[in-house]
Design a protein that fits this description.
Length: about 150
């Protein structure tokens, strides 16, 4: 996927400083980035890598100094980079929660789960299932549950 830096900036709510027509083909860390990649600087400790990165553009905080590369300025560079990652990676299809109506358990199959409910005040009427884990402090196994 190829996207202009200007389009990425709009998607992550940033401001372009420099050439907004630069083509961005992916995202990468500041040390791993190659030409076509977008990277970010959120921690001043990595400032020295700005001169060495091969990234085509960098997401930085607002009012960051010019580094000779196109920039996207954003008040939160880390969050902006996460949005850029999502833009390039896309949304993974997530399965629905629960048991599928066509699920079948084979004859003779066995397994175990333990049900724990918070003791004392009821904070959630639903039990918490966990395979074989010891109870956390304040949790107990309901008497009606048989292993």
């Amino acid at each position: 996927m190829k996207v202009t830096l200007e389009a990425v900036a709009r998607a992550i709510e940033g401001t372009v400083v420099g050439d907004g027509s630069v083509e961005i083909t992916g995202v990468a860390g500041i040390r791993e980035a190659r030409e076509g990649d977008l990277t970010f600087l959120a921690n001043p400790r990595y400032e020295s890598y700005l001169e060495l990165t091969q990234a085509s553009a960098v997401i930085v905080s607002e009012n960051h100094r010019n580094i000779g590369k196109p920039l996207i300025q954003n008040p939160n560079p880390y969050l902006a980079f996460l949005k850029a990652v999502r833009l390039f990676a896309g949304e993974a299809e997530r399965p629905c929660a629960g048991v599928h109506p066509t699920a079948v358990i084979a004859d003779g199959a066995f397994g175990r789960a333990q049900v724990w409910r918070r003791t004392g005040k009821v904070f959630d009427p639903r039990p918490v299932f966990d395979a074989g884990a010891p109870p956390l402090p304040g949790f107990s196994r309901p008497a009606e549950f048989v292993l």
